[in-house]
Design brief:
By secondary structure, the chain is an alpha/beta fold. Helices cover 46% and strands 14% of the residues. The protein is built from twelve helices and ten strands. Helix 11 crosses helix 12.
Amino acid sequence: MRTPIFLGTCTAIVTPFNDRGIDEKALTSLVDWQIASGVSALVACGTTGEPSTMSDEEWAQAVSIIITAAKGRVPVIAGTGGNNTAHVIHLAKVAKQLGAAAQLCVTPYYNKTTPQGLVAHYKAIADNTELPIIVYNVPGRTGLNMSPETLTEISHIPQVVAMKEASADLTRVADMMRLCEGRIAFYSGSDEVVVPLMSLGGQGVISVVSNVAPELTVQMTAAMLNGDYKAAAKLQLKLMPLIHALFMEVNPIPAKAGLAMLGRCEDRVRLPLVSMSEKGKAVMKKELEALGLLP
């Protein structure tokens, strides 16, 4: 296997906003808290970071803040993915200059392309950039579900080091792992199936729930890596109500609401997203209280 970028828990960190733009102070504080809680890596400007509402300059600012705050303590993976291959390549070059350790590249959306197009897309990124590539399959967002056979072909590209799989289809994951024959690492992109995916041989999770419950998420993945499956399963089940609350409305709406309740950042998302409903906030508060996370 190519060397994994991380093992265990990687937080797909939110981007806090204020009325001036990116809230640098809050974002820096979030990075410090996440690292102090034991996470192994951070994703800057993944879906949870709302990059689709940012200019390229803001995207670079967010990535830079996170890398600077991390101070080399954990690798920072920049979300570079998109449906314009040339723009992905541009962002990957900027991320390299800023000090990112790798790039997370979602499959193209809207102009979704064919299996042959997916292979050509990732090959072009690899041929024109230097950062290791984590392929990201999230059909609920993109309308495209990469087949195990297509990933197998992509896994032969030397720069591709891992797959973030967010279909929550464990049969598909098992077929992907079998066909890729250990060439790449596998990370769960669905918090509700971290333990099952790791039981098949996955190396960890790129997580949303760890935004609000980093220590518990770290404990869960560490237990799996240490072979304590019973403890890991117990933590997976313990986290399930909070995970459900985090996906009651479109991510990262609930994550921002939860972090605001924890006093970590403002409850502010950018249009077309809007703040969590009062009903949703009541559920979020209940689940945070149940886990003893509220101050």
